[in-house]
Specification:
single chain, globular, Rossmann fold, alpha/beta, 8 helices
Length: 233
């Protein structure tokens, strides 16, 4: 089971006195030195052997290995129940503690899977208008937690999001791939010979990860390993 203690510290303790810490899954009050409550930690559907280790999708409901461009993918949880609530809170309610939870799990999973040769982490970018509205890129927050305490460099200047035409979740599966290819572009930063970790919040059809992987390979990436907080069955 994962360890969701955050180490506490004076700053967290003092902040908790004014803004009591809440669990990102159920919104209940928790101790200042915890990232989520024990009940939610136990009830969350963390990914299991039914998730394909290469594409990150359910092997029962049909994986994406025939379509994937990336080398492998790890996902922390299934996109339902309290994990879905946590993602929604992260994206729309400024509950950034959820990023710490998912980032912590993904960092542990990288170690368990033996991905110890990652050089660079690249979050899937937001367009600057969306970034200004939200105040942060949720994928970047997850990536920052993944690289915490490691030698992996975090690069936010590798990919760029073009002005959004439509939210990916509003498109049919057949439309997502073409849309994703048009929504991202390279900044020209060299990744020659690097093993890259591409980080996103939700894995749905793999269209976004494929589009970004193609750009990373064009910039010289040797391998692209993907990490998503949750995967949709």
């Amino acid at each position: 089971m994962f360890d969701f203690s955050n180490g506490g510290g004076v700053r967290r303790f003092l902040t908790d006195l004014i803004f009591p810490t809440r669990c990102p899954f159920c919104d209940g009050f928790i101790a200042y030195d915890r990232l989520c409550c024990e009940q939610c930690m136990d009830e969350c559907r963390w990914t299991d052997e039914n998730i394909c280790p290469l594409c990150g999708k359910s092997v029962i409901k049909g994986c994406l290995c025939g379509k994937r461009l990336y080398d492998a993918c790890i996902c922390a949880a299934y996109y339902d129940g309290n994990a879905k609530k946590a993602i929604m809170s992260l994206k729309y309610e400024h509950d950034t503690q959820a990023a710490e939870v998912f980032g912590r799990v993904l960092r542990d999973m990288l170690s368990v899977r033996g991905f110890d040769d990652i050089d660079t982490a690249v979050p899937v970018p937001l367009h600057r208008e969306r970034l200004r509205e939200r105040g942060y890129n949720q994928s970047e927050l997850i990536a920052r937690e993944i690289v915490r305490g490691t030698d992996i460099e975090l690069r936010t200047d590798v990919l760029r999001r073009k002005p959004p035409r439509a939210e990916q979740h509003t498109l049919a599966g057949s439309e997502r791939s073409d849309a994703a290819k048009e929504q991202y572009e390279s900044t020209g930063v060299s990744l020659e010979g690097k093993n890259v970790l591409l980080v996103d919040d939700v894995l749905t059809t793999g269209a976004t990860l494929n589009a970004c992987t193609a750009l990373l390979r064009a910039q010289g990436a040797a391998r692209v390993i993907c990490a998503a907080a949750v995967t949709v069955e």
